[in-house]
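Sequence dictates fold. Next comes a concrete instance:
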Amino acid sequence: MKRVNLHTIRLILILGILFFLVGFANHRQKLKPVKAINVELLDASKIFITEAEVEDLLEEVLASNGDSLINEQRLATFEHALNANEMIKLSEAFYSLDGTLSARIIQREPIARIRDKGFYYLDTEGLPMPLSSNYSSRVPLVSGVSPKELQEVYPLLKKIEADDFLKKHIIAIRKIAEKSYVLEVRDQGYLVNFGQISYLDKKLTNYKVFYSKASEYKKLDDYKRIDLQFGNQVVCTTK
């Protein structure tokens, strides 16, 4: 019969004690009450929903369960309640060792304000989003477009959102006929006839080149209409 190694026995006993202590600590942790709530908005430059409003949502979930004990299985319930809010894109809930329930929040981001029997936003995913009483986003106003037609103009809005110049420059998009749009620009007296939502990169690049040259020669005030619908050409109508 082989002699049992004393070192091996000692190691097994130590591991057993460690597992017991960890299990006991986890059990005690689950019996601790939630002592505080902490909310972090990952983009706090635009406040569509406040930290206080998120805290109220978490408090409602705690109250609906009849207790405020730490429960890891309940984290999914918190996240479900937060993600159901129309201002929240994604959330992460977690507990800390001091008994704090924390939530990290990614807000939805508008890329356009839609006018259609009232106003609402269109977000980066192309989905409707209500206006917020906390913050008004500076995005292009879209009019003349029904809810079913929003996906037609959505690619143009994404291009504008991704370009620093266009995002500041284009203030409105208006549908004037079937598949035909005009753009209104900031601080200029002309309209931009964009035509169909097609050849976006070419049309927008042509416009930026035109604007740069006309601005350089101080000619922007001479025009009342800029037409981008003719392929590679930029056709300008003077006042």
Confidence is low (pLDDT under 50) at residues 20-25. The chain has two domains: 36-107, 110-238. The helical segments are 6-30, 51-64, 75-83, 150-161, 164-169, 200-216. Residues 180 and 195 are 4 Å apart (CA to CA).
